[in-house]
Amino acid sequence: MSPSTQAHLFFSVAASLVAALLVAGCTPFQPDPRDGMELSLPPAYTLYSEEPRATDRWWREFGSEELDALVEEGLSANLDIGAAWGRLRQARASAVQSGADAYPVLTGAADYAHTRSSGNARSETTSETHSVGLSAGYEVDFWGRVQAVSRAGELDSAASREDLNTVAMTVAAEIVTKWVRIQAQRQKKQILHSQITANRTYLELIELRFRNSLATALDVYQQRENVERVKAELPLVESEEQLLLHELALLLGRPVGTVMVADEPLPEPASLPGLGLPVDLLANRPDIRSSGLALQSADWTVAAARADRLPALTLGGDAAYSGAQLATLFNNWMFSLAASVVGPIFDGGSRAAEVEKARGVVDERLADYKATVLTALKEVEDALAQEKWQRRYIKARQAQVLAARVNLSEALSRYRQGLDDYLPVLTALFTVQELEVSAVGDAADLLLYRAALHRALGGSWVNDLVPSAPDGEEDAVQSGAAPNDQHQHNG
What we know:
Layout (H helix, E strand, L loop, with lengths): L2 H22 L40 H13 L1 H20 L6 E16 L2 E18 L4 H67 L5 H35 L29 H4 L1 H22 L4 E12 L8 E11 L7 H67 L6 H35 L15 H6 L13
Antiparallel strand pairs: 1-2, 2-3, 3-4
Helix pairs in contact: 2-4, 3-4, 4-5, 4-7, 4-9, 7-8, 8-9
């Protein structure tokens, strides 16, 4: 290479580097500050608890080892959670792709050409060409477009993890709900069998009185109808139990008929757990965190769309060796360095519309974020109100049961003395037996309201979940995927 050529190459490289440094010193586009993010959350909930804030696996307070095992199995085998892991893996790979433009692109190429030409039958020319080289390209992030696209991808990946956490919380609560309802149906079934036995005893006594002319045939028919009425309720209870077992099997990712649940009494709910403050929902609810991360991603997408309207500077370089034979391949070489600026002049308003579209997405996600926060607050208050009034309702129904039993005892006494016919006894018996069955449902509802409260409060235990497949999340992390950005949320 001649001295003049070397000097020209040196100045070209220097000029490109200076231009790159000047470009890098420019201020890139950032998300615009927005007003309207503040939400008027109340300072406290309507109910207060002095218990510490429970963020661990809350279903353990029910005291059932079988329930604990079912929930843990569901968290690892549920198909909705498995699909969420797949979506998370995709999101992390997309985040890597969105950040790839921040690095130079280097490609290699090798060529071989063999040509043969002939002017006439006696003249023939053969030539060969061998070449090997490298080509590099890099877009200088003049306006911050590459950074904005990369940041949006990272936030989408983090939002996908929060979506997975939301699914996990839902699955855990659903498994607890199915287990409680299964136990409730079984207790109802036991009560119905006891009632059938008691009604048959009443029937035998009435038939005995009928044979002794102390009761009418109508009394016998009425009590027989009462026996059949209670027996008719059994198929509905058993059907509901079977359907709940089917739903539980699906939650566990198993075929129908493969789940067995042992009989256990319904547990007494513990004291009201620590609620914290409404503002804690912003950190404890994964759906709120996901919504906030999606909003931040939309902000960065706007910045990328704005930067895309401006010219882009690209640096490129090529280096290659070539020769007519492999032995002389490295005797000849070529090196080139180039810079190009490409910018839109007229695109029919496409890029401007893309900016407007991205801003519309921000408006949509801002509204979604606020709705998610307010919905979370409503769900907590709903669960608190339901548990509060359910406890009062159960207490009132217990008093009603006592009064109904006294009424039944008095009606039986008057019937035995011949002061009344059998209808008051039948009415009182029907009321007592109906209250006995409904009491099981009332106790189950109280537990379901507690489960709904824990689900509404959220928690951090979902952050410890890992995919059941060993190559799921680990591969994504090893490939350079975006880290879980759980600490970031709006509001």
